[in-house]
Amino acid sequence: MRFAFTYPIITHPCNPELVSPHGVTAVAKAAEAAGFDAMGFTDHPAPTQRWLDAGGHDSLDPFVAMGFAAAHTRTLRFIPNVVVLPYRNPFVVAKSGATLELLSGGRFTLAVGVGYLKGEFAALGVDFDERTALVEESLDVIRAIWTGDDVSFEGRHFSARGITAHPRPSSCPPIWIGGNTGRARQRAATRGDGWAPFAAPAGLAGTARTAAMDSLDALAAGIEDLRRRCDQANRDWSTIDICFSNLAGGRLGYDDFDASAYLDGLGRLTDVGVTWVQVAVPGDSLTGAIEAIEQFGESVIKEAR
């Protein structure tokens, strides 16, 4: 089992310490020292005030932030949670990803999603109703330009003729597909290297325009569906990573956190096929985030290994 977390900017306004050079560096170094395998950032370039007031959060640009953190670490992998693929031309995403892969020494996984905030799509000039089709064409373009030269592709809103983008990544970064739906699993089976659903009760699932997933049974059913889709696509499902949260053990950094129960939950996740766990790190303060990371390293990561 490997461990990842999303950089803990979880409020609006966010804690200013967490969006400082010192804060990003300190969290990344603490995570690496604690034994975490990966860290990521969210992707909200133009959130609406209404979303922020309803419990949304601030954000840093994921590619800039991952590049900055990569310069201060040596082993930590960078997995955004997630890049909203329709927001950007796929050639721009491919160039950002290739650059990060090269300059980090191969420590990049591109995790993508379709997005759900209509106001953000409107601000960026992207048709919300086209988002699924845009994701699928983007995935094809990104793999093509990472692995070949003289690429031509007729997109919905661009026409690429004979494109060669060097330097290529040293090796093609893995691509994880975010989302809880059958369409997301189909995308993972046919175009991805990983599936990254997220824990979502019915209310949150409705807001995020995805399927509910709030129990181990629901996750197991989704994984079984992914396996069927891999079989249909002649893919070896065992080569696909699966990342999910541990629903056992309480909240890291709070009094109700129970490392023993958390470790038991890890065993159950392993049994259903999960290979990565997404850990929720508190974001009330820089000190609190680092203390929680250190606590997790001592009480969970060391015990799990």
Key terms for this structure?
305 residues, alpha/beta, nine-stranded parallel sheet, two-stranded antiparallel ribbon, 11 helices, globular, LLM class F420-dependent oxidoreductase, FMN, flavoprotein, SsuD_RutA_monooxygenase, Luciferase-like_sf
What would your notes on this structure say?
- With about 300 residues, the protein is α/β, with parallel strands linked by helices.
- It is about 45% helix and about 15% strand.
- The chain is built from eleven helices and eleven strands.
- A nine-stranded parallel beta sheet has the order 3-2-1-11-10-9-8-5-4. Strands 6-7 form a two-stranded antiparallel ribbon.
- Helix 3 packs parallel to helix 4, helix 7 crosses helix 9 and helix 10 packs across helix 11.
- The longest helix is centred in the C-terminal third of the chain and has 19 residues.
- The model has no long low-confidence stretch (mean pLDDT about 95).
